[in-house]
Every structure is written in structure tokens, then in C-alpha cells.
Amino acid sequence: MTTPVLSIRNLSVEIPTRQGIVKPVDGVSYDVGKGEILGVVGESGAGKSMAGNAVIGLLNAPAHISGGEIWLNGRRIDPLKGEDMRRLRGKEIGMIFQDPLTSLNPLLTIGDQLTETMLTHLPISRKEARERAIAALEEVGIPGAAERIDSYPHEFSGGMRQRVVIALALCAEPSLVIADEPTTALDVSVQAQIISLLKRLCHERGTAVMLITHDMGVIAEAADRVAVMYAGRLAELGTVRDVLTVPQHPYTHGLMASTPLASQGRKRLHQIPGAMPRLHHMPDGCAFHPRCPHARDKCRAAPLPPVANERAACWFPMLPEEVQ
Amino acid sequence: MTTEVKDKGRWQRFLESDFFYAFKRSPVALVSFAVVCLLVLSAVFAPLIAPTNPFDPASLNLMDGFTPPLEPNAFTGNTFLLGTDDQGRDVFSTILYGMRVSLFVGVAAVLFAMVLGIVLGLVSGYFGGWTETIIMRVADVQLTFPSILVAMLIFGVAKGFTPVEYRDQMAIWVLILAIGLSDWVQFARVVRGATLVEKNKEYVAAARMIGRSPWAIMIKHILPNALSPVLVIATISLALAIIAEATLSFLGVGAPPTQPSLGTLIRIGQGFLFSGEWWILFFPACTLLALALSVNLLGDWLRDALNPRLR
Amino acid sequence: MLAFVIRRIGQSLLVLLIVGLVAFSMFRFVGDPIDNMLGQERTIEDVERLRAQLGLDQPFPIQYFKFLEGAAQGNFGVSYRQGRPVAEILLERAPATLELAAVSGVLAILAGIALGVFTAIRRNGPTAHTIMAASLIGVSLPTFLIGILLIYLFSVELGWLPSFGRGETVQLGSWWTTGFLTESGWKALILPAITLGLYQMTLIMRLVRSEMLEVLRQDYIRFARARGLRSRVVNFRHALKNTMVPVVTVIGLQLGAIIAFAIITETVFQWPGVGLLFINAIQFVDIPVMAAYLMLISVMFVGINLIVDILYVFIDPRLRVDRNGGH
């Protein structure tokens, strides 16, 4: 098997707080292969964005990586600091943020922002950079790219701005893109366009994508494999078809049942009772047991089963016949 | 419920409040509060504390002039804590009396600005229309200019109106008028803002319906909502007013030498900077600095504690 | 854009008219100009003649209009104290104040922005903490005390720099005298310029720091970092430029304040500028000089405010469109 583009092994992130150390990411492992889209899904606070920030080295102090390894194209990157990490950002790892209205600098034209990124990472002239910037804008579907390159961000609509953000993230041709809720702030009608654009570009270029979202619909549409996170830990990992059709972890099952799907008609949506535990008060054993309909004594006492790169982190995975 | 119980309850509530807790926990607030208290008390009780009354010509001896601090005078053998000036006045006593003038002018000017600002703010917010336009326009124009300049101008004009023989006597009151008039805008803006918010609330409409007069509504119902920002602005204004007074007096357009404030004392002391009598300048300057700095720090702290949004 | 500029100019003119009214009222009602000009020995005819000559027999609005007309042409009357035309005295004194204000302004802006950026980027470093603590004292320190302190250190104790005056000046053209061309002129300028600039520098520094901290929290700064831009580029090209939008307004106001605060510095250092002239005018109730100074400084303030507003539009492209879109 070829080396995956991104490989996270047993990654933990810690934040020291007044009430003690909390672990927003706790022993997470997954791989993303070339041209593959890995959906990382979970509720807000599940640690999915934090893991993405750890990969690109943008954790806000005092949060820091406290354990595990991050490998990018066969090179270990988690110990990198300062300038070494900076050279990687943009060039090897691109990142797309949630809100296109706030992620572009309002005082610089989009052309300025594109060319400065390329000139930072690529050995090209200013003129070439401008040509490539126009090409990049065309590629993400900005009509009249040659004229609009000198426009300011506020002159674009939200959807168009997210296209610009994608062009920015991809302009130095990184091998990995972390897309952190790329469609959450957009109109529903635009969401699908952005997702299919992202999907197309990455498949064409063979870019690996870590697609962070809380939206199961986005996962179903775009991802090849999916990692379900709960309270900083990996709950389930597998191909989209497996996880979505036959979830093994009760949490994934609950998440699926609470997602509105057009095909289900007007059926009443399922709710997972309770709320995700706060990081200061993590329960013993499996973090999900207080909300799990199938919890038994073992779940309450014993620590989690070891998570391999396969399926559910659960003592009693659900069987296909339990899942309707 | 008797008033006594109510008062005790209030005091108790204050001691248990977040505000008092934050105060106890902040060394900056505690120290500046202590310094302010010390300075204010020594200014108030200056006649009791001061060894001499520096403005009683009978108690002065020109032979005592230019005595350095804590050294006996060559002619008279008298010793003075902080030395004496050219006239033989005890510097420690002049500082105590000077601080009285500085604090009096500062506090009076801020009170004047506060009352004026509150009234104009309430009126313009409550009545709106032309009154509001005119008041806020004047405020805007005045804000274009630094308040110290406005104070100087008002001082100059008022001086022009005062007959020559009364100018020294009136100087303190003119100073209060000038600093107060230069500083009302901030108060007016805050109070007007609060008034605009409150006047449309139901309880104000209810009060109006039962026939309460506009002034009763403004003072009893609307004003209390603006009190904490007004208090913060007043404290910060006090530091600014003390500095403004000192500056004007230092420039020779404030408190006269017959009734010197700290600024006047510094003006007098500056003349002896080159001849080596440093103490005549040094001690008044330090006192002014301590006063301005501690009031300023207290105001800063108060602003953060009462209303973080004002930052 | 054009409509915006025209509207702002209109507002500025209104402010000037109000200030003109204040200045005129001072001139007209504070003391009796006739008394001031003629002194004790006078005849009824003298009074009548002067009254007609000054136009004091005409209705108030006409007098006001004439006053404005005169002021616009630089005619501010005659100083009660010096007996010379006020315009002449002001013109003679203006270069000293303008040179002092210019040097302090440049000093305050450059040092203020540099220190503000530094304390924002290194906000947890010991140097930044020290600078911030010192700045708090700087804000509470009255300007004249700073001046006296500097005189004591550098003139009295060390004897390096002069404590008063402008040093040697050189005549440039018909009326401008400059201290920039002689060594003693520069030496004399150092202490007053620092005294005058320090307070404004502190204000600019604190403002730049807090705005910069705010901007550094924004998404587009995270995104700029995520694209691997060098931290110098992120801090200066991206963050500082966004910081400048609010900072420019305050800097504009501070420039006006520098000219006003020059009064204090000029008094401490006996600097022969218009500020010292103004203070003397107040001491001696020389109304024409006061009125003229007021008019002059208002024109400067209003002019600076106008420039700042227009500058705004150039810094922030969003305003360009919004204002265009409005019309």
C-alpha cells in the first residue's frame, strides 16, 4: 500500500485551564490517501476542528499537541516549529475556513492575496503569478476572472468569495487541504456547488482532503471515508457507504437517525438524549455511555477499546440487523 | 422595614458584591484608593496638619528663605521638613494648602460639568427636536477642540469680563467655570444615549400616562440607568480636571500666586531650577504626579470593573 | 465620492462660521474695543470716528459679515498690547510653532505606531509589559512636568541641550524663519519636540496596540497564516493596514491637539511661537490676538479633519463603493 498523504497517529491536544488540563483531542488516529476525501464529522466541541488546526500547526496558545504523531507524505511534521512549519502551510497543506465573509482581507484585492501566496511558495515572477492567479480564479468558476482579479472581497457574493478562498487554499498546489466547515456559512443553494467544486478540483489534482463538518449530508455527498468524532475521541471510522448504511457505533447510529433526509419524508426526527459531556467532566469508560441506549457495566468502567484504523470504538458494536 | 435595617442591608450587600470583591483583589485599585484618601484627607485637614499658615504674612520670616529640606537655616536655625521657598514659606505647608486649591477646583469643575452634562443630556435625549440638534451640534463643535484649549479661551474671555481689581479673587471661580464648561460633552453624550434607550421603554410610557412630569420621569426613572458610566467618566474627568487646572495655573492663566494651587507652585519653583533650590519645584511636582496618577488609575480600574464595554 | 467630499466641506464651513461667531462675539463684547484702543484721553469725536471706522455703528449681522470678510483676507485687527496688526504678529510667530509641531507629530506617529505594533505582537514579552506600564504613567503625566523633567536632566544636570528659545534661525523667503538649517536650531528643537510628542505618542501607541490585537484575532489573519505567509507580511501588510483605518482618525485629531498643546510646551521652553503669543494674550486680555488665534487654529483643525476623512476613503476600499452606491 502506498504511503498516505496524511497520517495521524494517536494524536492528543491539551489545553491547560484553571480547572485543570482538558483534552479536546484524545488519542485520535486516521489516514487520508492521495485524492481521497476524508469526512470528519461530529457535534461542535467534538474536537474535529482542533485536530485540523493541530495538523496545520495553528493551535491557539495555550492549546498544544501533547502526544502522538502527524505524518505528511512520509515526513513527521508535528515537531516542526516556526519557519519550518510556516513553509509547509499553504505549500503542502492548504486550509479553507468556514466563513468566506471574514476570511479574506478586506483591504487587499483578491489578486494581491493570490499572488502574495504564490510568490511566497513558488519560484515564479510577479507576472507569472498574476497569470496563474487569473487561471486559478477561472478554475474555481469566477466569471470574467481577468477583470475581477483587481476587485476587493466586498465586491463578491458569499458563494463567490468561498470560491476565491478555495482558489487561495489551492493556488500553491498543496497535497493536503483541510476544509473546516466550508459550507456552513453559505446559502443552501450554494452549498452543493461549493462541495462539488471542491470534490472536482481535488479529484483532478489528486489532493487529499480533510473535510471537517457537522453535516451528514455533506459527508454523504462528498466524502470517500468518514471519521466520526465524539468528545475528542474517534467513535467510528470507515468508508462512507459502510458507516452511513450500517453504522456500528451507537453514536453514529443516533447521528444518522437525527439527520433529516429528503427520502425519509415527514417522519419525526430522532434525538440523542442528553448532551456531549463537557471536557472538564469526562465520564469514566466510554465517553458516550451516559447517552447510549445500549450501555452496559463494562462501558461505564473499562477504558475504551483500542481504536485501530477500522470501524467502531465500542465494546458492543451494533449488528447490521439492529440497524433499520 | 426600618431605614436602619435597610441601610445595613445595603452596606452588607455592597461588601458582598462582585464590585467590592474585585476591588479587594486588585492591588492597583487598593493602593491608588489609599493614596487618594491620604491626599484628600491631608488637603481637607491642611490647617490642622500644616506647621505654618504660609499665607499669613505675620508667620513668615524672610530670613528663613531658601532653607533646604531637613537642614537648619544658616541664620535662624529653623528646620523644615521639605525646606522653604524664597519668601521663607514652608514648602510642606504650601503643598498642603496648594492641594486644597487643586482638589477644590478639580472637584467643583467636575461637579459643574456633570450637572450641566446630565441636564443637557437628559433634555436633548428626552425632548429631541431642535433642542437636541442645537445641543449636540455645539457638543460636536466643542469636541473638535482639545478641552484644555477651550478652557483657556473661556478663562481668557471670563477674565475680560471681570473688572481688573477682582481678577485675582475671582480667578478660582473662573477656573472652575472654564474647566467645567470644557468638559460637559462626555457626560451629555452618555446620558443622552441612555435616555434615548430608556424613554421608549414601557415603564416610562406608564409613568407618563399616570401624569408624572417630564422632569420627575427623567430624574427618577431615566437617570439611574446612566449612573454607572457617569460615575466612571466623573472619576476620569477628575484626573483630567486636576491636570488641566495645574496646567492652566502653571501657564499663569489659573490660580494666582496669592492663592496658589499645585500648578502655581510648580510655576514658581521652575524659576529656581537653575539656581539649585530643587526642592521648591520637586515636592509640589511629586504631589501633583501622585494625585493625578492615583486618580487616573482608580478611574481606569473603575471603568473596567463597572462597564467593560466602555473600553 | 464627490458628493461626500462636498458634504464634508459644507460641514467644515459651518463649523468655521460658528467659531467665527464666537471669535467675533469675543471681539465685540469682551471689554469695549474703543476703550481698549483709545485709552483715557479722548474726545467724543474721536470715539464717534473710531466707531464708524470700525463699523461698530452698523447692525450686528453686517458687523459679523464684515468681520468674516476681513478674517478671510487675513485682517484680524490690531493687537491691543503691541499696537501692530495681529496678522503680522501671527505670521512672524507661525514658523516656529509649525516646525515644532511637525517634528513632534512625525516623532509621535512613527514611534507610536512602531511601539504599538511591537507591544501587540510581543504582547506577553517583558519588554512589552514594561512599555505598557510606562505608557500608563506617561498618560497621567502633565505635559509641562515632562518638559521640566527634561530640562532638569539635559540642561541643568548634563548641560547638553539648551532649555529655552529656538537657537539660531535662518531667513527663508520673505517671512519664513527656520531652525532646521543650523546645529543650534536642531539642538534647541530636541527637548520641546520630545515634550510635545510624548503624550500623543503614548496615545497613538495604546490605540495601535489595542486595534492591532483586535485585528490579529480576525479570521483573515488566521487564513493568511494558514497560507504560510511570512509573519512579517502577516503583521505589517495584513494586520497593520487594517489597524490603520481607525488609527488614522485619531492621528488626525492628535495632530490638531499637538498644535493646541504647543501652547504648554512653548511656555515651558519659551519657544517663540503662536502658542506663547496666545498665552500672553490671555494674560493681558488681548482679545484681537485671542480671536485670531482661535480662527487660525480652527481652520487648521477643520482642515485636518477634512483631510483625514478623505484619506479614510483611500485606505478602505469598502467606503469607496458604499459612498458611490449611495448616490
Give the topology, please.
The complex is a heterotrimer of chains A (324), B (311) and C (327).
Chain A: E1 6-17, E2 20-32, E3 37-41, H1 48-56, E4 64-72, E5 75-76, H2 82-88, E6 93-96, H3 110-121, H4 126-139, H5 145-148, H6 158-170, E7 176-180, H7 188-205, E8 208-213, H8 216-222, E9 225-230, E10 233-239, H9 240-245, H10 250-257, H11 297-301
Parallel strand pairs in A: 3-8, 3-9, 6-7, 7-8
Antiparallel strand pairs in A: 1-2, 1-4, 4-5, 9-10
Chain B: H1 3-16, H2 18-25, H3 27-44, H4 46-49, H5 91-127, H6 129-143, H7 147-161, H8 167-181, H9 184-198, H10 202-209, H11 214-251, H12 262-270, H13 279-306
Chain C: H1 2-29, H2 33-38, H3 44-54, H4 60-72, H5 86-121, H6 126-140, H7 143-157, E1 170-172, E2 176-178, H8 183-216, H9 219-226, H10 231-269, H11 274-283, H12 287-315, H13 317-325
Antiparallel strand pairs in C: 1-2
Helix pairs in contact in C: 1-12, 5-6, 5-8, 5-10, 6-8, 7-8, 7-10, 8-10, 9-10, 10-11, 10-12, 11-12, 12-13
How would you sum up this structure, described in words?
- The complex is a heterotrimer of chains A (324), B (311) and C (327).
- Chain A has a single domain, classed as P-loop containing nucleotide triphosphate hydrolases (Rossmann fold, 3-Layer(aba) Sandwich), CATH 3.40.50.300.
- In chain A, a hairpin with a 2-residue loop joins strand 4 and strand 5.
- Chain A is built from eleven helices and ten strands.
- Chain A is an alpha/beta fold and 324 residues long.
- Chain B has 13 helices and no strands.
- With 327 residues, chain C is mainly α.
- Chain C has 13 helices and two strands.
- In chain C, strand 1 and strand 2 form a beta hairpin.
- In chain C, helix 1 runs antiparallel to helix 12, helix 7 crosses helix 8 and helix 10 packs across helix 11.
- Chain C is globular.
- Chain C starts with a helix and ends with a helix.
- The C terminus of chain C is likely disordered.
- Chains in contact: A-C, B-C.
- The interface between B and C is large, with 36 and 42 residues.
